[in-house]
Task: structure prediction
Amino acid sequence: MRKKLILISGSPCVGKTAAGTRLFESFDNSAYLDGDWCWCVHPFSVTDSRLRNGDKSMSFILSNYLDSDFEYVFFTSVVLTDPQIREGILKGITAKDYEVIAFTLTCSEETLKKRHDKRGDKGETNYYWLHLPPCPGDIVIDTDNKSIRNIVKEMKKQINAANE
Result:
């Protein structure tokens, strides 16, 4: 079986981390990277050119996981919604012989607002990321009215289908 790099993108508060963590825990011989760990700066701005260094960190960590023979590497990040940033991160991966399966999680504005408020984020809910089109080839999953368990079940079905 070829190693799988599983990308999970979408707006903040859409459920990437919750689904990614649960998904990672359900696969043996797997590794997980939350892209937020590499972009933890204040103030945060996706247009800050210094953040391309965070992209390099992501590429390095993903390469390390893939070269360490994990069968599944899960990677969640809001920045994966930007095709140019995603392409740069993927091009920076030095590992060979792996397959990419990409998901975009989405939901309604109403659901995003509720999740944002529940999380306790300060300020207004930003819908910018929510309205970006998914990258070509992404499997889009609407998370409205679904539990994390059901979202993960849906994602696992797609990942397992890729193994057949």
